[in-house]
Specification:
By secondary structure, the protein is mostly helical. It has a domain of 203 residues: Annexin V, domain 1 (Orthogonal Bundle). It is built from 16 helices and 2 strands. The protein has a two-stranded antiparallel ribbon. The radius of gyration is 42 Å and the shape is elongated. 25% of the residues are buried.
Amino acid sequence: MILANAFCLFFFLGTGADPVVSAKSNHCLDAAKACNLNDNCKKLRSSYISICNREISPTERCNRRKCHKALRQFFDRVPSEFTYRMLFCSCQDLACAERRRQTILPSCSYEDKEKPNCLDLRGVCRTDHLCRSRLADFHANCRASYHTVTSCPADNYQACLGSYAGMIGFDMTPNYVDSSPTGIVVSPWCNCRGSGNMEEECEKFLRDFTENPCLRNAIQAFGNGTDVNVSPKGPSFQATQTPRVEKTPSLPDDLSDSTGLGTSVITTCTSVQEQGLKANNSKELSMCFTELTTNIIPGSNKVIKPNSGPSRARPSAALTVLSVLMLKLAL
């Protein structure tokens, strides 16, 4: 008992942390307790822990395929308010950081006997449509952007964290590389040995995880409770296009629009009459005269369409004119 207490004291003194403060500030432990208070989170977490810890044989520590499936179910079906707290909890000491690293049971889901080449691992991931899609989401939402305050596209921490969590449970599963409480470094289980002339591409791919300022800032911000958009976004305005103005055809060509034609002709005739000009035999005035004599019923302001109305309307008008002429001849 004395030896155990001495070891604990040495552990906390070695890390430079106050035992009382460290016990109270283990946010990863608090996250695990919060998960156990939620039925769905507790059930699915217990499921993947049981599966990923089940030894198959002395040479096979677990069924990795089943472990990955259980992890995918946990992160897909449990709300992020629980899963993110367990994955991205902030730590001040080694015990907390180790609990954070152990969240996904890395001995089964992450680590292997040997590290494959990262490009080979990426190739395996791309053969699975879902893994390929998750990897593409990660590159899109976590790529380092030097035009934003947070180094994330559109200053969106949540999109990056969601893309990272979405990759857990696949061959490209990432995790913390060590139990450092301060230096956050995550990576898939791979390296760039044996890349040949593709080494530069391999190193670039690996740095998207290990030296990604967007991902690192997003994890730190969530753990510190500052995972908000630091730069307010104004409303996005779409470019307003100038309305297209259709050229209005000239009067003689616009014969398909009966209403427009009637109005234009009446306006033209009115202006000629108001100015007291003598009508000539031009096409426009001839049309005007025709419309006025056929489209306006005498004694009213009603305008009718040409060739409409009773068929006896035109003979009546002709008889009236003939009567007037006969009267003048008689006089």
